[in-house]
Amino acid sequence: MLPPRVSSPPSPRLSPSAAPARSAEQHCLRLLAASSTPTSLLQSVAFLLKSGLHANPLVLTRLFAASASAAPALLEPLVAALLVPSVPLDAFLVNTLIRAHATSPIPSVRVRAAAFFPLMLRGAVVPNKFTFPFLLKACAALPGSPAFGLQAHASSLKFGFATDQYVSNTLIHMYSCFGGGFLGDARNVFDRMRKESAVTWSAMIGGYVRGGLSSDAVELFREMQANGVRADEVTVIGVLAAATDLGALELARWVRRFVEREGIGKSVTLCNALIDTLAKCGDVDGAVAVFEGMQQRSVVSWTSVIDALAMEGRGKEAVRVFEDMKVAGVPPDDVAFIGVLTACSHAGMVDEGCGYFDSMRVEYGIEPKIEHYGCMVDMFGRAGMVERAMEFVRTMPIQPNPVIWRSLVSACRAHGRLELGESITRSLIHEYPAHEANYVMLSNVFALTQRWKEKSEIRREMSKRGIKKVPGCSIVELDGEVHEFIAGDESHPQYKDIYRMVEEMARELRRVGHIAATSEVLLDLDEEDKEGSLHWHSEKLAIAFSLLRTPPGTQVRVVKNLRVCSDCHAAIKCISQVYRREIVVRDRSRFHRFKDGSCSCKDFW
Hints:
The chain is mainly alpha-helical. Helices cover 63% and strands 5% of the residues.
């Protein structure tokens, strides 16, 4: 007997009213997928409203995602108009809202991203593992408000996603964005994770760099290699950023060889990072070589090389690269113009700089920003055209900022216009009473005119306001190790030998006729004590250490966090001649290449 036939269930049929709705939904989704401009997006919105799809979660999800990429300025108005209480929420929709806001180019939109997570919880929508990476990234971007991030971390623990690899990586990123005080939290997350992925190591390396702990970033990279985890492009860019911060040229060169040896793809972004690092560590020719070897170049590539040449005072070469960029069909942007104006400023090419400044509007329709005006004031000041610089500032269409005024003060000081410099500095102190640089500049003006009483009053005022001068710090890299020196510091293991070497250098300088520029010492001491205090400036300690530890003829490289003072600049010129060394010093504004008693800056910096 045959078993009874089991009939298949009938295929579900859409009701007559559901079929058109389904068709409208699919058509709207296709329109949204093709929306690449604000106009096409608004056409899709019109169809959405006409078809009654304003409460469809899937359609709204695609709409907000499309707005984030095609029309960021429309995202907030669309959310305000369409995300009403009657819309049924799901995790896909809320995740999209968080991500769309977190990745927006508009700052006021980005800060709203984290606000959608409480909405999710109030709507009884359970987050999934995709929610927290978006949410934590949004929290990382909130300025000065770690509370949201801490709450988000607690929620990830509550819902069981804190150990997810992607969530943990984003937690590291978030805590490192909160600043140095939270780097320990980032490291705690890192230490509890499986460390099989380069993404995890890169997140922590990047966190250390952002927190100013570049030496720790380099040490972690070495640990990553010892654990056999292969570095990727993001890792390398993080290590290059650490090398830049430390001024570690040998590390930068090693990373360049490492990229070649490991076969890491040399993308435009990676090559740009290599150019920037090599240049800022003092190997401008190496940076140019990387640039010349690139098959594809972006405007950032060109600008990085222009900046590199400008920092070394090779203005004519920088201008030539700028012209080559135009010939190659790459239109210069506002950043490129900052580079070429800086090059003209450092090289004393006033006429050329004025021509480029005028061409911004005339040829390229670029409205000069405060940085471009600052370059022009610096250029006139360096060239000794103090009156022209003042007139330029008076006729600027935008309000000059403190940086421009301080640039004018530097020009006044360099060219003997001390009365004008004092007047400007007093105005700066009146308007910006909390900025230490203004007090230091006025103090130095008083020192140059030997007005010790007024100088002491400035120091007392700084102390009264709790304002402290940033201490000078110099860094030297030797045999893969970074050594840090602070003026008068005795923490280095070889400090006794270093100080003896500094005293020897002082004797040698006196022997060849060098006289310390004691007028700018920031304490009212007698001449002998003033000269002594100058001996212990951080760059001299770093140079003494390098002379002790390297063979004769070896190039000495120093990175300093502040501008090199006048006495140290004059002294290092003599040291380069007496000890027959080329000495390269990177201060906060440029490179100084000392050789045979002269400097590449031509004594104007």
